[in-house]
Amino acid sequence: MRLLLPLLSLAAFLVLAGCGSDHSDHASPSGADETHVVHASVYDGVQVIAVTVGDRGYEPARVAFTAGIPARMVFTRTVDNACAEQIAAPDFDVEPVDLPLDTPVAIEFTPTETGTYAFACGMDMMRGRIVVSS
Ligand SMILES: [Cu+2]
Question: Ligand 1 centre from 84 Cα, in Å?
Answer without folding.
Answer: 5
